[in-house]
Amino acid sequence: MKTERAYAVASPSPERAVHRVAIVGPRRELDGVPLAEAPWPGVLVDRVVDEAFDTYLDGLGGETLAVVVVVAEAGDRGPLRVLRSRPERLRTRAYVLARAPARLLSPVEDDWDVEGIVDLDRLTPEALAHAVENGLRAYRALGTNPLIPEYYLDATYNRIFDWFETTKWDWRELDLSQIRRDLLTEPEIDILQESAIIEFGTLPGAHNFLREWADEYSFSSWALSWGAEEARHSLVQCRYLHEIGIEVRAKHALYKREPYPIGENRAATLMMNIISESRAAEYYKTLARLTREPVLRTIWRLLGRDESRHARAFFVFCKELVDRAEENAVAAVQMAYVWLADRRRGVKHPAGLFYPHSSSTSGLRQIERYAPVMTDVADRKVLAMIRNLLDDESVQSVGDLKAYLRSKVA
Amino acid sequence: MNDVSREVYRIVGETLRVPPGELRPDLPIRAIPNAESIKMLTVILKVEKQFDVEIPDEATFGIETVGQFDELVQMLAAERAAANAR
Ligand SMILES: [Fe+2]
Ligand SMILES: [Fe+2]
Description:
The structure holds two protein chains of two kinds. By secondary structure, chain A is an alpha/beta fold. Chain A has helices at about 25-30, 55-60, 80-85, 105-110, 125-140, 155-165, 185-200, 200-210, 220-245, 250-255, 265-290, 295-320, 325-340, 350-355, 360-370, 375-390, 400-410; strands at about 20-25, 45-50, 65-70, 95-100, 115-120. Chain A starts with 18 loop residues before the first strand and ends with a helix. Chain B contains four helices and no strands. Chain B has helices at about 5-15, 35-50, 55-60, 65-85. The interface of A and B includes residues 268, 335, 337, 402 and 405 of A.
């Protein structure tokens, strides 16, 4: 994914580039700071007189400056101000070497995002090397994901958290002892088994999300809570089946265990999930309408509600990416076109797509025959979300998606 | 091979990264390692742009071989040329 970066990184593979460490301070202090010129492979140490720091940064251009150690006697924090006034150097980790560090006021240090303060009077080569090593590790941990905000709570997941939390359902809403076996039909029981098994496919989905989004915490947090909800979808349907004397074999969960390949573009991955959640929502809502058994109706209604909430959540994260870069929009629309236009062999589902031997796809087709308009309803909702994504009211059909893509072909 | 065919084979080969000599008319598209849906969509979009034609959705996902795809584009391109001549 190539989007605009919050941190300037010139090298295409920043982690293999040379990492620079700058020791900044008054000339008379600099030579005394005990750190080798090249203490570790791939790391170079520069010594910079504080008045020349600004010029030094100009000269670096897009080079990686991983750690800055500011020798700050008499409480001078000038170089920190210089460093943090440059947005492209927000990722650089900063340490302060100071005399009597206990007297330093931490809020000031915090404003400049200082990792640590080292006592200049008791400075040993080991203590300094340790601090700089931690700084390098912290620098790598920060990565280059442009969606990471400065403050934890500003991440998208934390902003939409309450909406999810307050719409969660409670197991106490269900009483499996109230099942009216006499109201269930055989095809319905088949479909229930299929649904329980389709839901197993969400587990490799969760594995995948966490791998694909390994460089951030916002969508990853959502993926955890999404995965937990999906696990309930399998569980509740398997427990219902158990209650009526049907046991689901564990092999079905394992058949879907192998994670599918990581997508090329996150917005496209999210679009695939918007569509499958939106279709799953209509699927459960349709089933809930059709069944006469009250407990099952409640379960399917709750699952339908979950799935449409999931679709909207994936949309929020997709929109965040689409708003940043047009190539994300194009990738998302490509995925949408492929999924919405290609219903030749029935509805596609991520699980069925990647696991030809799984029964999920045939299960979906079975229900498609039951309620052929179900998918049309779902897909119309997806098109509405795409209009919002692209901020373009003219997108009304699959053909319009293709027209959009044609206009973007190089 | 006419100009349209040459272009079709060039676009298919470049987009799906198949060496020119290996693209035969009877080659099943699904047998090409890079021919997943998104890549095929890119082929379709490039061809549509190149010849100012519109390839129907059924064909986008239903075409079996490179030759069939070529024939379809030839037909659409000829229709377009006739329409332009009018
Ligand atoms: Fe689900
Ligand atoms: Fe879901």
